[in-house]
Amino acid sequence: MSSENPIRHISDTALWVARYRAMESERSDALFYDPFARDLAGERGEQIAGELSRFGMHSWPIVVRTQVIDELILHAIEADGYDTVLNLAAGLDTRPYRLTMPATLRWVEVDMPEVIEHKSRILKDATCFCRLERYALDLRDVEARRDMLQKVGAAATRMLVVTEGLLLYLDEEQVKDLAWDLYRQPAAKRWLTDLASPRLLKYLHRVRQQLPPGTDFRFAPADHVDFFLSRSWHATAFHSTWDDAKRLNRREVRLGWLWDLLSWVIPGARAQNRKMSGIAVLERP
Questions:
Q1: What pTM, to 2 d.p., does this model score?
Q2: Which domains are assigned to the chain?
Q3: Consecutive H or E run containing 159
Q4: Contact predicate 68/142, CB 8 Å
Q5: C-alpha–C-alpha distance, residues 56 and 54, integer Å
Q6: Contact status, residue 188 vs residue 161, Cβ threshold 8 Å
Q7: Which of 83, 108, 175, 186 is the most buried (most CB within 10 A)?
Q8: Tens-digit pLDDT string for the chain (285 aa)
Q9: Which run of H or of E encompasses 269?
Q10: What does residue 126 show for φ and ψ, rounded to 5 degrees?
Q11: 128: which DSSP letter?
Q12: Element spanning 135, H or E
């Protein structure tokens, strides 16, 4: 095993996730097809995924997360009339290129400058299904973030916010500040975010040594979705990764059937499994 950390910068996690999307796309029973993922991930993405597999990090939770968020985004656009999607820390996500959406939909991506530059270069000749905008900025820069949110929100009627793979790297105060900044935009009606439990956080600490200095897994609120009530967001649904992985036939857990059995026998075990990770659907009152 290499002595060098496979992840040199937090933005490298985007290469890692893209590699998992490429792997799923190449299955005969793929849940989704991302024709750009392999090129976006490159050799570095393959290396990162290979190294982290030694620590028990596998593709199925990311694949499930991707598919569930795909479903929720399409439902929000088709059934609920959202005209704008704001994807914060978008990474190398390619939904504007692989999901069939209205040409009038406004899709806004925000990420670090190096991620935006890499993505724009690889996808320069790809066809986008909607109106795409990109903002290159560090979301930790509060003033720049608020300025961007004001500009994006002012031109939206019903805005869906997506934070996929972001909150885990923030501390509680940073998440509260972000939640409040989003709430101050009247057009931001719904927020989709992945959410980890303290139990999952303990599991993830096994790969902590593979992260660059100053980067860590942080956000896993003990009060789960109720955490967001302090900033006026309430959960209308929580899509458990454990349940959705079974529905989508992607639960690649050794003795997973035994975990299911124990969850019905041990008091509270089923609730713990369901809350370990998933997608929270947050709405303003």
A1: 0.90
A2: 58-283 (3.40.50.150)
A3: strand 159-163
A4: no
A5: 6
A6: yes
A7: 108
A8: 344 556 666 778 899 999 999 999 999 999 999 999 999 999 999 988 887 776 556 899 999 999 999 999 999 999 999 999 999 999 999 999 999 999 999 999 999 999 999 999 999 999 999 999 999 999 999 999 999 999 999 999 999 999 999 999 999 999 999 999 999 999 999 999 999 999 888 877 766 665 555 568 899 999 999 999 988 999 999 999 999 999 999 987 554 544 554 455 555 656 667 889 999 999 998
A9: helix 269-275
A10: -80, 150
A11: P
A12: strand 131-136
Give 75-83 contacts, CB < 8 A, sequence gap 24+: 76/160, 76/190, 77/101, 77/102, 77/105, 77/160, 80/158, 80/190, 81/158, 82/158, 82/159, 82/160, 82/189, 82/190, 83/156, 83/157, 83/158, 83/159
What residue type is 19 in one-letter code?
R
Query: Where do the H-state alpha helices sit in 54-210?
Result: 60-78, 95-98, 113-122, 142-154, 172-183, 198-204
Taking residue 234's Cβ as centre, other Cβ atoms within 10 Å add up to 13
Number of H helices, E strands in the chain: 11, 7
Question: What does the block give as tokens for 92?
Answer: 């190398």
CA-closest candidate to residue 126, choices 36, 23, 33, 19:
36
The type of residue at 1 is: M
- Angle, helices 142-154/172-183, rounded to nearest 10 degrees: 30
Q: Contact 140/166 with Cβ under 8 angstroms? A: no
Show the tokens assigned to 55. Answer: 């620590």
CA distance 246 to 260: 10
Burial class of residue 275 in the structure, from the number of CB atoms within 10 Å of its CB (0-12 exposed, 13-18 middle, 19+ buried) = buried
The order of strands in the sheet holding 131-136 is 131-136, 106-111, 84-88, 159-163, 188-196, 277-283, 234-240
Other CB atoms within 10 A of residue 61 CB: 23
Closest CA to 272 of 216, 222, 208: 222
